Amino acid sequence: MEVINMMNKDLNSHPCNQYPSYFFAGFWMRFFAYIVDFIMVKSIEGIIINPIFAIFKIPKVDSIFSIYSLTQIILFLLYFILMTKWTNGQTIGKMIFGLRVVSFTEEKLSWTTVIIREGFGRFILYKIPILYLILIFTERNQQLADLLTDTSVITENMVKASNEKLNTINI
Fold this sequence. Notes:
Elements: H1 2-11, H2 27-55, H3 67-86, H4 92-97, E1 99-103, H5 111-127, H6 144-149, E2 151-155, H7 156-170
Antiparallel strand pairs: 1-2
């Protein structure tokens, strides 16, 4: 009953995806999902990028403006942008941990939201990871890019459980 009241109360201020505060994924769940995604990006880099650099004998210099560093950043951002958009808010790490990005203003994530959140936001967090700790202090566990795009990450099992409860109440 509390879930229904909470959702009805917030529908006036935000038309989409309203959840009680305990539905939002915390720091550690998101961190472990990120670690899985980081391993995925590094695996793709090892399978595709490194052989290309080896075949064309391009030096792998780690300076900030080298071709190799720019390729790494582009791969990193493309992984998060494309996975989040194509799977409606999930990356492989989020899938494993049962997490999903949701928007409070859109039913489905738009390209603009995904590019700002996963492109711009991830780039900033990649360069200044301490900013990620902002999510500990926000009501809906939002990090910097979430605040910019009015999104957050939810735990899907909580949503499924509440939907099942609502279905049994309506029967």
